[in-house]
Write a sequence for this structure.
């Protein structure tokens, strides 16, 4: 899933390749926006996406196809059951709906197939050891063993007055994400909101945060809360509950496949990347779109990995 945000930007670029075939994109009309009455056409929008991201997108799709073919050749093809299991893990971790909103189910499924191909290949060609499995379980344990917890979306700002205005906007019926974009800061970069799990039994979390999370129903938001070192408030926030989970105590035996898959993805990157490069060079690739024709050569003969810090 690590390439999914790049793919999100790139996927729409594919539309321009098929514009002459009557392909329609759900939710996109002939005009994607207007500025003071001047239209930005869908044609202009997709042409820009194609030129900026089309080559990266196609390279990713080619690599995915090679990974799936390699898995099939090794008699470990990707199955629908495996993809369903991946989706359930994303849902349990509270990230599936966000991914769907960002890139759509089709893009998620494409990327999950490629990830699963890596998993299947690594499990066969570089099997996970008992020691690796146990170490990975310990590292992943907070997701498997926890008290009752609430996933919250948070608007953060160091100025209390800003969040008091945000609370008024929410009370007036505005959407949480819109309010966050106007009144929130982005301490982690990217979106103006962050999502975290609040474990209601875990020591160390600020008491006011835990108490507020306990009271929230899914879809409801808190009052303005202050956080910071004892006796010093450095940030203010508003939380919205988006998910709740009961207490969990999953043993390694309960989540063995998930933990093993996590290790397998890492081992593929470490130990099988060179074999993937060989597969890429051997693949019979024909690019039908003239504007993307050089992708074949850049894809099949990428620069060798740089050793050390490298020069300028």
């Amino acid at each position: 899933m690590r390439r999914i945000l790049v793919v999100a930007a790139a996927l729409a670029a594919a539309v321009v390749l098929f514009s002459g075939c009557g392909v329609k994109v759900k939710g996109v009309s002939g005009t994607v926006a207007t500025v003071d009455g001047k239209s930005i056409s869908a044609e202009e929008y997709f042409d820009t996406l194609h030129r900026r991201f089309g080559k990266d997108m196609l390279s990713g799709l080619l690599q995915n196809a090679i990974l799936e073919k390699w898995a099939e050749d090794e008699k470990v093809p990707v199955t629908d059951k495996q993809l369903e299991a991946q989706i359930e893990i994303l849902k349990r971790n509270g990230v599936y709906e966000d991914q769907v909103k960002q890139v759509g189910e089709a893009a998620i499924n494409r990327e999950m197939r490629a990830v699963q191909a890596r998993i299947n290949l690594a499990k066969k060609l570089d099997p996970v050891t008992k020691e690796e499995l146990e170490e990975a379980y310990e590292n992943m344990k907070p997701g498997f063993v926890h008290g009752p917890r609430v996933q919250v979306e948070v608007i953060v700002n160091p100025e209390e007055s800003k969040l008091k205005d945000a609370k008024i906007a929410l009370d007036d019926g505005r959407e949480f994400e819109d309010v966050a974009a106007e009144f929130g800061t982005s301490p982690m970069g990217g979106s103006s909101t962050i999502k975290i799990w609040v474990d209601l039994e875990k020591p160390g979390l600020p008491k006011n945060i835990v108490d507020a999370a306990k009271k929230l129903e899914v879809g409801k938001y808190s009052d303005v809360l202050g956080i910071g070192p004892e006796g010093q408030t450095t940030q203010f926030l508003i939380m919205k509950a988006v998910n709740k989970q009961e207490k969990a105590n999953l043993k390694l035996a309960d989540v063995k496949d998930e933990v093993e898959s996590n290790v397998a993805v890492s081992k593929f990157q470490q130990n099988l990347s060179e074999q993937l490069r060989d597969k890429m060079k051997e693949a019979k690739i024909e690019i039908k779109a003239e504007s993307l024709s050089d992708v074949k050569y850049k894809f099949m003969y990428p620069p060798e990995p740089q050793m050390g810090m490298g020069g300028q």
Q: What stands out?
A: The domain at 4-139+252-300 is CATH 1.10.4030 (Triger factor/SurA peptide-binding fold). The chain has two domains: 4-139+252-300, 145-249.
